[in-house]
C-alpha cells in the first residue's frame, strides 16, 4: 500500500488488487515504497512554512508549493506520474495546462510550449477585442440611451471601457485561490509602464514642438493618483482589508470624478458666457451632445475588427492585403463565433438576426453553465440553474425571433438589448481574464517563476499595449490630442488602481466568511509603488519647470527609471530589500 501525503493534509491511498502491498516491495523505478513514503513525509515537513520561517512569505502561486517540484519529480517515473499522484496541482481554469504539457504532449513538449504560447496571445487578443468590439459598443449605446452628458460619460463609463481588460483581470485574480498577488502586480506593473514608458514615448515624440498641456488638470491628476497610491500603501502595510475599507478606497475615484465633472461644467459655462458676449447669436455653436465614438475604445482600438472591416478605404487596398485580411478572418472565426452567439449586438453595421436570436437563447445557458462550475454549488442547485437557464433561453429566443427584422436592429426594447450585451460582455471578460490568470500561474509552475513576476511583466505589458499605441498616435496629432493623451496616461492607471483593485478587494472581502480579505504578503509591491511614485514626482517637477511642455528630459528620465525598475525586479535584487 502506497500512502501519499499532500501539503493540504489530504490522504490518498493507492491499494493494489493483489498482494503487492508488502513494505519491502520495489517500484518500477527501483525505489522502495517505504522510501517513497519517507520522501513524501520529508517533503511535507520541509515544504510546510512554519510560523517562524518566511521562506515563502512572498509566494503568490495559487498552486500548492509542492507542485513546483513537478520538474524534478523525485520519487516518480516522470512529470506526468507526479501530477497524477498530486491532483491538487490541477489548474483552476477550463483547461489543465500543466497536465497538457507533461502528459498529453509526451515527448513533443516543444509543441506543447508552442500551443500554450499561441493560446496566451489569443487570450490577450480576446480580452482586448471583447473590450473594443463588444463592451465599448454597449457602453457607447448605453450612454446615448441614458442621455448622459459627455462629462459624466467621460469620467464614469469611458475609463471603464478602456480599462476593462485590467479591471477584470484583477477581479479574476482576486477571486481566485491565492492569486491576489498576480492582480496587484498586474495593475501596478501596468501603471508603472504607462506612467513611465508611455508618457516617456509621448514626450519624446512631441519634444521640440512647443506644445503645452493644462497645468491644473495635470497637477490634479497627479495629486489624486498620489493619494490613491498612499492609501493602497496603507492597506498593504496593514495586510488585510474589509469591505468598508475597500469601498472607501473606491470612493476616492468618485471624489476625483466629481472634481473633473465640476471643473468641466464650470469651464463650459464660462466659455458659453464669453461666446454670448463676444459673438452674435447665430455664431454660437452647440456643445457636442456626446463623446466622439473613437474615444470609447481608444486604448483597445488595436484589437478592433469592425473599424477596419467597414473602412471606406478598403476598395483601395491591395489584393495581397485583402488576402491576408480574409485569412485572418478565417483564423479568427473560432474565437469570434462563440461570442457572437452569446453577446447581443444592436449596431447597424454588425446587425444579424440569426446571431441576435441565438444570443438571446444561448446567453442564459452560458450563465447556467458558469453557475454550475462553482465549487460550492450542490448538484440539486446545478439542476435548478440549468432548468432556469433553458426556460429563459427558450423564452428570450422566441421573443427575439418574433420581434426582430432581418435588415435592421430592433427599435423597441432597445435598452434590454443593450443591457444584455453589457452583461454578457462582462461575463466573457471574466471568463477570459480568469483563464489568462490561470495560464500565467501554470507558466509560473512550469518555468519555476513566481506568477506575480509574470503579472508584473507579461500581463501588464499585454494590457498596456493599447495605451502605448493609442496615446502616442494621439500625441502626434498635437493640440488638444496631446492633452487627451497625457490625461489618459494618468487617469487610466488611476482608474485601474482605484476601481480595478478597489472592486477586486470589495469582491474578495465580500466572498470571505469573515468579510476580510488577506492581502498577499509580497514585499516587492512596496518597491513597485516606490518607483511609481518616483515617476509621478519626476513628471511633477520637470513639466512645470519647462512651462508644461513635454521634452527629452522628461521622456528619457521616465524610460530610464522604468528600465532600472524592471532590472531590479527581474534580477532578484528585491530579495535584499524585502529581507
Automatic annotation (TrEMBL):
Residues 117-260, 418-569 form the Sodium/calcium exchanger membrane region domain. Its main location: membrane. Gene3D superfamilies: NCX, central ion-binding region. It is found in: Membrane. The chain crosses the membrane at residues 108-127, 187-206, 218-239, 245-266, 354-371, 383-401, 413-433, 453-476, 488-511, 523-543, 555-578. Keywords: Antiport, Ion transport, Membrane, Potassium, Potassium transport, Sodium, Sodium transport, Transmembrane, Transmembrane helix, Transport. It is a multi-pass membrane protein. Pfam families: Na_Ca_ex (PF01699). One of its GO terms (molecular function) is antiporter activity. One of its GO terms (cellular component) is membrane. This is Sodium/calcium exchanger membrane region domain-containing protein.
Amino acid at each position: 500500500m502506497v500512502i501519499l501525503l499532500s501539503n493540504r493534509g489530504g490522504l490518498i491511498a493507492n491499494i493494489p488488487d493483489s498482494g503487492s502491498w508488502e513494505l519491502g516491495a520495489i517500484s518500477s523505478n527501483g525505489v522502495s515504497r517505504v522510501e517513497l513514503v519517507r520522501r513524501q513525509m520529508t517533503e511535507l515537513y520541509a515544504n510546510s512554512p512554519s510560523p517562524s520561517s518566511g521562506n515563502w512569505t512572498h509566494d503568490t502561486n495559487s498552486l500548492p508549493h509542492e507542485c513546483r517540484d513537478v520538474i524534478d519529480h523525485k520519487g516518480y517515473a516522470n512529470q506526468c506520474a507526479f501530477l497524477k499522484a498530486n491532483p491538487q496541482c490541477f489548474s483552476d481554469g477550463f483547461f489543465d495546462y500543466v497536465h497538457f504539457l507533461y502528459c498529453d504532449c509526451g515527448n513533443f513538449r516543444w509543441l506543447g510550449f508552442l500551443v500554450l504560447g499561441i493560446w496566451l496571445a489569443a487570450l490577450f487578443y480576446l480580452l482586448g477585442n471583447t473590450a473594443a468590439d463588444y463592451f465599448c459598443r454597449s457602453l457607447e449605446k448605453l450612454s446615448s440611451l441614458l442621455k448622459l452628458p459627455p462629462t459624466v460619460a467621460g469620467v464614469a463609463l469611458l475609463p471603464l471601457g478602456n480599462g476593462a481588460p485590467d479591471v477584470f483581470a484583477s477581479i479574476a485574480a482576486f477571486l481566485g485561490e491565492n492569486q491576489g498577488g498576480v492582480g496587484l502586480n498586474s495593475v501596478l506593473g501596468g501603471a508603472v509602464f504607462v506612467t513611465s514608458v508611455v508618457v516617456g514615448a509621448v514626450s519624446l515624440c512631441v519634444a521640440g514642438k512647443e506644445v503645452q498641456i493644462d497645468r491644473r488638470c495635470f497637477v490634479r491628476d497627479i495629486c489624486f493618483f498620489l493619494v490613491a497610491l498612499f492609501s493602497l500603501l496603507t492597506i498593504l502595510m496593514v495586510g488585510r482589508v474589509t469591505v468598508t475599507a475597500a469601498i472607501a478606497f473606491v470612493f476616492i475615484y468618485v471624489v476625483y470624478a466629481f472634481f473633473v465633472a465640476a471643473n468641466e461644467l464650470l469651464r463650459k459655462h464660462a466659455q458659453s458666457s464669453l461666446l454670448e458676449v463676444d459673438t452674435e447669436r447665430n455664431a454660437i455653436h452647440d456643445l457636442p451632445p456626446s463623446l466622439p465614438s473613437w474615444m470609447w475604445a481608444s486604448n483597445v482600438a488595436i484589437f478592433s475588427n469592425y473599424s477596419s472591416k467597414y473602412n471606406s478605404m478598403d476598395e483601395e487596398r491591395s489584393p495581397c492585403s485583402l488576402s491576408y485580411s480574409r485569412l485572418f478572418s478565417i483564423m479568427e472565426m473560432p474565437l469570434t463565433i462563440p461570442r457572437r452567439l452569446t453577446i447581443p449586438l444592436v449596431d447597424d453595421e454588425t446587425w444579424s438576426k440569426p446571431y441576435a436570436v441565438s444570443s438571446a437563447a444561448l446567453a442564459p445557458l452560458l450563465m447556467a453553465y458558469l453557475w454550475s462550475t462553482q465549487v460550492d454549488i450542490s448538484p440539486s442547485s446545478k439542476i435548478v440553474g440549468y432548468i432556469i437557464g433553458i426556460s429563459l433561453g427558450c423564452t428570450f429566443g422566441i421573443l427575439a425571433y418574433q420581434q426582430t427584422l432581418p435588415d435592421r436592429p430592433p427599435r423597441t426594447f432597445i435598452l434590454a438589448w443593450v443591457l444584455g450585451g453589457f452583461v454578457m460582455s462582462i461575463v466573457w471578460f471574466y471568463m477570459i481574464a480568469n483563464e489568462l490568470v490561470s495560464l500565467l500561474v501554470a507558466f509560473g509552475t512550469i518555468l519555476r517563476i513566481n506568477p506575480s513576476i509574470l503579472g508584473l511583466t507579461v500581463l501588464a505589458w499585454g494590457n498596456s499595449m493599447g495605451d502605448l499605441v493609442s496615446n502616442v498616435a494621439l500625441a502626434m496629432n498635437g493640440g488638444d490630442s496631446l492633452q487627451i493623451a497625457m490625461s489618459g496616461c494618468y487617469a487610466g492607471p488611476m482608474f485601474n488602481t482605484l476601481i480595478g483593485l478597489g472592486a477586486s478587494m470589495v469582491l474578495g472581502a465580500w466572498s470571505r466568511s469573515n468579510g476580510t480579505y488577506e492581502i498577499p504578503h509580497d514585499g516587492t509591491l512596496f518597491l513597485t509603488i516606490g518607483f511609481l511614485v518616483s515617476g509621478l514626482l519626476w513628471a511633477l517637477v520637470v513639466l512645470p519647470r519647462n512651462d508644461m511642455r513635454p521634452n527629452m528630459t522628461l521622456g528619457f528620465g521616465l524610460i530610464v527609471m522604468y528600465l532600472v525598475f524592471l532590472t531590479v525586479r527581474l534580477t532578484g535584487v528585491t530579495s535584499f530589500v524585502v529581507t
